[in-house]
Amino acid sequence: MREILPALGRWYAEGSPFGLATVVAVSRSAPRDPGASMAVGPGDEVVGSVSGGCVEGAVFELAQDVVESGEARLETFGYSDEDAFAVGLTCGGEITLLVRPVTAALDPSFGAVAESVAAGRPVTVATVIDGPARRGATLAVWEDEVSGTLGTTGLDVAVTADARGELALGATGQRHYGPRGERREDSVTVFLHSFAPPPRMLVFGAIDYAAAVARIGSFLGYRVTVCDARPVFATPKRFPAGVEVVVEWPHRYLHATPTDERTVICVLTHDPKFDVPLLEEALRRPAAYIGAMGSRRTHDDRMKRLRDGGLDEAELARLRSPVGLDLGARTPEEVAVSVAAEIVALRWGGSGAPLTATGGEIHPRVR
């Protein structure tokens, strides 16, 4: 959704109705996660994807239908192989889509939501997907304000509280309520879609490998910062556009920089005077991934220094070193792919093994 919002915001500002399809539930080996979206706008322009191509033709027609009727629809697509031309997923999974019309009259908060996402202001959009409340009704919830309604004051109050909780976690998913927000009932299903600011990737060491890692980090959706104490290397012209470059001692910069459970920290300095104090700081704070470049000899020496610095085995176990998966990478770009692959595998619980050597679901649900 984040990627297609600029186009949706433009259509909305122009007063052009559009149909918006959003994945609100998945099962088994579904190709996309909840929140993935596709929209059909003026001139039948299409942006986004909900299945990687399996059902987009059917969704295109659904989006046109809801714009014409003004009524939202809930549709489920599953596996179908009896008819080669049947609409269905080929992966064996199942996705449920909410397809709704978007206009200023039906969703007066949409423009403000698009602007907030573009500005990095956290917001959660709550949408009724099933039950006695109007399907497609939306409530936009920020940290300090609310816009829209799901139909009743009680439902709005209950959903607002939950939406702010999900927003703090950057989480997206379904919640169930009674018609007036009763928490012990489940007649109304609401989809909470959180737009937290992009996670951060902190890259330390302004070397050629850092430029490649920064580039792939930006591609994966991270807000990337490169930090190095050496001003001759830490110059913006050596890095992709949009990457922040900071001249500072790495451990000092990290000490002054907030991190959370989504933050990725890549230490590429492989110099003890930089990376040991930096890792002492990194391994004692929240982060999704902490990786350090270096040979196995460098790693052994680094681990000894970190133990001597007082880090315990639980803290040291968080360190991914030598950094990356074993791909046989040589060039900076190949090493960046190796690092990115390890980050993705750690995020989703992947083994890093070739899919030809594994069995079961390709996209298992994350509990």
TrEMBL record:
In this protein, which residues make up the domain named XdhC- CoxI?
11-78, 117-178
InterPro entries found in the cross-reference section: MoCofactor_Util/Proc (IPR052698), XdhC_CoxI (IPR003777), XdhC_Rossmann_dom (IPR027051)
Q: Name one Pfam family in it.
A: XdhC_C
User: XdhC Rossmann domain spans which residues?
Assistant: 201-343
Matching PANTHER family: ALDEHYDE OXIDOREDUCTASE MOLYBDENUM COFACTOR ASSEMBLY PROTEIN, MOLYBDENUM COFACTOR INSERTION CHAPERONE PAOD
Protein's UniProt name: XdhC family protein
